[in-house]
Amino acid sequence: MSGSDPVVIGLTTYLEQAQTGVWDVPAAFLPKVYFDSVTRAGGIAVLLPPQPVSKEIANRVLDSLDGLIVTGGKDVDPGRYGQDRHEATDEPRTDRDAWEDALLTAAIERGLPFLGICRGAQMLNVALGGTLHQHLPEVIGSSRYQLGGGTFNRVPIEAEPGSAVATLIGAEPLHVEVYHHQAIDRLGDGLVVTARSDDGVVQAVEVSGMPFGVAVQWHPEQNQDDLRLFAGLVDAAREAKK
User: Fold this and answer.
1) Which class for 23: exposed (0-12), middle (13-18), buried (19 or more C-beta within 10 A)?
2) Exactly one of 100, 158, 206, 221 is catalytic; which is it?
3) Residue 1 has what pLDDT?
4) For 30, left (φ over 0), alpha (ψ -120 to 50), or beta?
5) In the Cβ-directed half-sphere of 24, how many Cα atoms lie within 13 Å?
6) 3-class secondary-structure state, position 142
7) Helix 119-127 to helix 94-110 angle, to the nearest 10 degrees?
8) Mean pLDDT for the stretch of residues 148-163
9) Is residue 2 scored above 50 in pLDDT?
């Protein structure tokens, strides 16, 4: 566990049709492994479901948080980066897109530590004016990043020496869990690429000038034996409180 002073970490959630018992209703949810990662790293997890948002609402939410995680999920609406939807791209979740865009924008403005995961990295890039490859198999000729059926693949990535990511996980090649068919294309304003996989696909970005504004394309929550990124966020949130 990281440190002793608990910090509150907000995690964005899905909003999908879900079944439990006799109920089949739209519901906000998040796989338990995400908030387990936060609590095991020494943080207090608070879930942030998609809802109507404004700049004022986003700032009020962040007033109560010490750190933020933008989680994985459905594809970002390509209309947000000026493209038509590819046939392989999910139906847009415009409410979640708007919610997470506002939270990320406000977090960057105030320097609130945050971690983006998979969709979270893509959302960060789009929020800062970047674009996405909508279907990686057409770019790299392989489905290695999304095997399908909920099966995570493991691919080697390498972090840039001196980056926040390298400080946490090392600069040596590391195999990580992936499940994505999209990836960062044109880089958003103020972002620096800090890790790639062996075929050049962007696997981590950081916001220039922020103590901890990190987003990774892989799924660190899937490896409960390696919580270094979550511990890094919790430590950064604790430091920002001082």
Assistant:
1) exposed
2) 221
3) 46
4) beta
5) 0
6) coil
7) 70
8) 96
9) no
Task: Note the pLDDT tens digit of each residue in 113-133.
Answer: 999 999 999 999 999 999 999
87 a catalytic residue = no
Question: In which residue are the tokens 């922020």 written?
Answer: 210
- Which two three-digit tokens encode residue 126? 């789009």
Token code pair at residue 195: 């890790």
Rg (CA), the chain: 17
Cross-strand pairs, 177: 154
Of 86, 109, 118, 172, which one is the catalytic site residue? 118
pLDDT digits (tens, 9 = 90+) for 21-65: 999 999 999 999 999 999 999 999 999 999 999 999 999 999 999
Which residue do the tokens 């139906």 mark? Answer: 91
* Rounded-to-10 torsion of CA 2, 191, 32, 5: 20
The pTM of the full predicted model, rounded to 2 decimals, is 0.96
CA gap 231, 242 in Å, rounded: 17
Whether 118 is catalytic is yes
227 pLDDT more than 70? yes
